[in-house]
Recover the amino acids of this structure.
């Protein structure tokens, strides 16, 4: 039987590639070398992109790199076994098994650095660390020995803790409240952490071989590839992202985020056209170097966790149509002050789920937002946990203005510039924690 194939036209191929899932495009280009140049010229559309030091996630598929340790014996320490299970160690290892500090790696052309002058890597191979690990190991050993002794005597830990105890028993009292299985697991973990000190002290090579492992995962389906460890992990991350993104003329990303706090290993001239960007406030300036500034962001999400960094006049922030900020009440004063120069038409403030902001927290932020003259159509929103908080905020608004108009779940008052402010709250659909949305809106008088 003779089969015939009709060659696909160049433009038809480009149209098909444009609407093909990016992960499938990688596979096609790898298997059909003739279309690689064409594939690179077609705009690359990604629904969600997450970039980290050694992992790239495109849509629902992740490409994760790690250092895998293949043991020469069946007796694999628990720590190594667990790290292998999760794709390997996410940093380079030296000849004794110590992790190499991330700060010691160079920044290459095209890389995006999130390091600061104050960044310091915790050294994990010092004598102080070894001594601390030995103390913890000894405490776990003593606690397990005591539990085994009590079991052989037919006694329970609860009875022992309720009775008189010697000074040594008092010292491990808290350890005895840890379940025996957890103590056994912790014991193995501490022994595993101490092994590199043993290898270095005796100038021994660990009983395993290093490999660089690439784990490609989508849901429960994983593909694992291992390569000889003849390059550093950061170099492998650089090459991976070059294979995925280098020489692409247009990369369009609907949602971009990074959890990186060290260095993103990216190809030179890497740029994305993004609709939504999400990151911690200390990441926004480095992120801006790879987001094409010719396109206004639909939304920028900023998390203010520890340090409050005043980045709100940065072009990436100022030009975002909607600014969403997640913070906690401890930053309220700084945030209210920052509102004086913010020009975003839509702002949303969310608080971490673990905190419980009160009505005054919301009211002070609304006052800060209103301290700057804003035109009709501008609004700021907040998440509320309860209906009661909403009513308390409205009451503070009434008390803070001489003349107001009230309706169910809303208060309106006039401003001197022929505008009015309407503050209201309403239930949010499918919200798990912040079940109401509080809104302050500038309207025509």
């Amino acid at each position: 039987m003779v089969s015939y194939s009709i060659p696909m036209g160049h433009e038809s191929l480009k149209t098909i590639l444009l609407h093909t899932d990016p992960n499938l495009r990688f596979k096609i280009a790898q298997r059909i070398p003739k279309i690689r140049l064409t594939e690179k010229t077609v705009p690359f559309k990604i629904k969600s992109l997450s970039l980290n030091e050694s992992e790239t996630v495109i849509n629902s598929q992740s490409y994760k790199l790690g250092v895998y340790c293949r043991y020469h014996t069946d007796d694999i320490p628990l720590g190594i076994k667990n790290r292998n299970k999760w794709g390997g160690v996410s940093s380079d290892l030296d000849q004794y098994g110590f992790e190499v500090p991330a700060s010691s790696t160079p920044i290459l052309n095209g890389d995006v650095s999130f390091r600061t002058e104050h960044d310091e890597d915790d050294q994990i191979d010092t004598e102080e660390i070894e001594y601390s690990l030995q103390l913890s190991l000894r405490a776990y050993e003593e606690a397990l020995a005591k539990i085994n002794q009590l079991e052989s005597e037919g006694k329970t830990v609860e009875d022992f803790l309720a009775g008189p105890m010697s000074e040594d028993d008092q010292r491990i009292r808290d350890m005895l409240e840890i379940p025996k299985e957890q103590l056994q697991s912790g014991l193995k973990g501490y022994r595993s952490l101490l092994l590199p000190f043993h290898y270095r002290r005796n100038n021994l090579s660990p009983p395993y071989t290093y490999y660089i492992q690439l784990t490609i995962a989508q849901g429960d389906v994983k593909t694992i590839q291992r390569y000889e460890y003849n390059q550093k992990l950061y170099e492998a991350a650089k090459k991976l992202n070059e294979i995925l993104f280098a020489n692409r003329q247009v990369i369009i990303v609907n949602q971009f985020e990074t959890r990186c706090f060290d260095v993103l290993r990216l190809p030179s001239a890497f740029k994305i056209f993004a609709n939504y960007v999400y990151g911690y406030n200390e990441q926004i300036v480095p992120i801006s170097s790879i987001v094409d500034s010719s396109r206004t962001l639909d939304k920028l999400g900023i998390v203010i966790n520890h340090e409050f960094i005043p980045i709100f006049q940065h072009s990436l922030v100022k030009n975002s149509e909607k600014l969403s900020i997640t913070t906690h009440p401890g930053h309220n004063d700084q945030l209210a002050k920052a509102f004086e120069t913010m020009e975003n038409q839509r702002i949303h403030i969310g608080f971490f789920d673990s905190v419980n902001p009160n009505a005054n927290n919301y009211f002070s932020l609304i006052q800060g937002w209103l301290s700057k003259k804003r035109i009709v159509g501008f609004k700021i929103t907040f998440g509320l946990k309860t209906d009661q908080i909403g009513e308390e905020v409205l009451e503070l608004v009434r008390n803070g203005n001489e003349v107001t108009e009230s309706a169910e779940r809303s208060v309106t008052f006039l401003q001197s510039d022929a505008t009015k402010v309407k503050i209201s709250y309403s239930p949010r659909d499918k919200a798990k924690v912040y079940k109401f949305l509080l809104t302050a809106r500038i309207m025509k008088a």
Notes: Confidence is low (pLDDT under 50) at residues 1-6. The chain has three domains: 12-42, 64-213, 232-444. The longest strand covers residues 61-71.
